[in-house]
Every structure is written in C-alpha cells, then in structure tokens.
C-alpha cells in the first residue's frame, strides 16, 4: 500500500472535498494521506471519516499544509484562488502533482501558476468531467465551421452557493469558441447585461449565468442565426464525475515532466 500515490485533499469539509475523499477511499490505485482545512475549522484534529458521518478512515484533518505535503505525491485543490496560489509553491517544493479545479482565478493568478509550472506538474481545468471536455472540443469545431452570422451564447446554471460567475467551465467553453473563430475571448466577451445595453455586437461571445437550488452544473453553448439555432449541452447530475476526473488527473500526472496540463491531455483528446 505504501507504494501507491499518496493524495492530499484541500478543503476537506466542502462539497467537492468530501466527494474527493470518498472517491479516493474507494480507489485501489491511490491512498488518502492528508485532509486539509483552514486553521480554526472544527474538523481539525478529528478523523475525516468521522467528520463526514461515516467510518473512520485513519486520516486526521490537519491545518498544517507543509506537513501534509511532506508525504504526498499529489494534491487535489478545489478551493479558493488565494489558497490555490499558496499551495502551488508547496506542491512544487514537494515535487507533487497539483490538480487544480479552483475557479475564479485572476489573470495574475494564472500568470503565477504558469511560472510555478516551470518546476511543478500542474493539471488545471475549469471542469474535470469527460463529457464537458468533449463538449469543449465540439464547441471549438462548430465555432470554426460557422461564421459570425451565428451569435454564440454560453449559458450556465449552478447551485445557489456558487460564488463566481461565469463558471470556470463556461469560460473554458468561451475560450474554445474564441479559439475556433481565431479571436481572443477578451476582445469579444459580452457579460453582465443589464438595462439599455444596445444591440448585440456581431462576433461577440455572450455569457449568461443562472443560480438556484442544488443544480450541480448545466452548460449550453448556443449558436443562433436568423432562422436556425444549434445547441450543444452538458448536464452533470452528480459531483462524482468531477471527483473521478480529478483523481484520474492526479494519477496521470505521476512521473510527468513539469508543465501546465489540462484534462484534454489527461484524456488524450
């Protein structure tokens, strides 16, 4: 068992943290070696399995990231930008694969991760599911095949607790559409419509966000022209798809050269 890759889960008490812990515990190809939470959290010092309301897993929740990383071959991180940036340095020092599902990263954050990837193996994706990554490829191909007579709108829906918009997945789809059209998303992005906005600008890629209830994740890419519409759609009904993808990425990254990878690399797409 000691030869299996050891994985640290950040944000152990969160929705994704708990799903990741369950997924790792059920996977015979890896071990959960640490569960991280912020200092002062009431899970710290307790067995993570007990905290989750199940059987003890023999892993005590800790707030000491340095100690946790000392025994890790990978860390899976669905947290907040500041925590992700802080972990990037520790992961690089530990020569551990850093799997990042955190969304809401700024341009400065992304620039920092690019520098960190000179010395670390980073797998970062706005979405870890196979279906969404296939949707990304389809979006790029359809955008390349259609001209600007077709308006592009990315529509996403998530649960009421999600704090960022558009979602990381929506932005990933927008980037794919822009790449298909041979333009930069920053130059054509249309967000936050409210009030008298004027007519839609030809060639823009629009974003619409819905928040409510317990929606896990729904993403539509709409191509709309006069007289016809094409919709590409992905619906996630269970967070397990993201957890399985993240664990797959952590295992895939073992032995890889330093660099910044995404789920298309992991899935061979």
Percent range of helical residues: 25-40%
The strands making up the biggest β-sheet line up spatially as 3-2-1-4-5-6-12
Strand coverage percent: 15-25%
Shape: elongated
Uncertain parts: none
Question: Mean pLDDT across all residues, rounded?
Answer: 95
Helix/strand-derived category reads alpha/beta
What is the end-to-end distance? Answer: 31 Å
Count the helices. How many? 10
Q: Strand-and-helix sequence, N→C? A: EHEHEHEHEHEHEHHEEEEHEH
Specify Rg, calculated over alpha carbons.
Answer: 20 Å
Number of strands: 12
Largest sheet: 7 strands, parallel
In short:
The chain has 269 residues and is of the alpha/beta class.
Describe this structure in words.
The protein has 269 residues and is of the alpha/beta class. The protein contains ten helices and twelve strands. The strands form two sheets. Strands 3-2-1-4-5-6-12 form a seven-stranded parallel sheet, sandwiched between helices. Helix 2 links the parallel strand 2 and strand 3. Helix 1 crosses helix 9, helix 4 runs parallel beside helix 5 and helix 6 runs parallel beside helix 7. The longest helix has 16 residues. The chain starts with 5 loop residues before the first strand and ends with a helix. The mean pLDDT is 95.
């Amino acid at each position: 068992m000691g030869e299996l890759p050891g994985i640290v889960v950040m944000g152990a008490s969160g929705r994704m943290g708990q799903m990741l812990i369950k997924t790792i515990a059920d996977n015979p190809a890896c071990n959960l070696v640490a569960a991280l939470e912020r200092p002062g959290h009431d899970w710290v010092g307790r067995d993570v399995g007990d905290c989750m309301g199940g059987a003890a897993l023999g892993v005590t929740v800790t707030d000491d990231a340095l100690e946790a990383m000392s025994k890790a071959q990978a860390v899976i991180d669905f947290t907040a930008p500041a925590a992700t940036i802080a972990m990037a340095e520790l992961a690089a020092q530990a020569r551990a694969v850093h799997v990042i599902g955190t969304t809401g990263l700024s341009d400065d954050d992304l620039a920092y991760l690019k520098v960190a990837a000179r010395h670390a193996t980073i797998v970062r994706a706005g979405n870890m599911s196979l279906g969404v990554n296939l949707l990304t490829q389809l979006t790029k191909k359809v955008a390349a095949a259609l001209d600007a007579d077709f308006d592009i709108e990315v529509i996403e829906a998530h649960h009421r607790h999600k704090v960022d918009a558009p979602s990381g997945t929506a932005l990933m789809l927008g980037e794919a559409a822009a790449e298909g059209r041979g333009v930069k998303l920053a130059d054509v992005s249309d967000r936050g419509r409210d009030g008298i906005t004027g007519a839609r600008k030809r060639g823009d890629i629009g974003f619409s966000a819905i928040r409510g209830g317990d929606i896990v994740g729904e993403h539509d890419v709409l191509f709309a022209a006069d007289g016809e519409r094409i919709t590409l759609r992905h619906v996630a009904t269970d967070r397990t798809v993201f957890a399985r993808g993240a664990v797959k990425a952590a295992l895939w990254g073992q032995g890889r050269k330093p660099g910044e990878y995404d789920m298309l690399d992991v899935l061979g797409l």
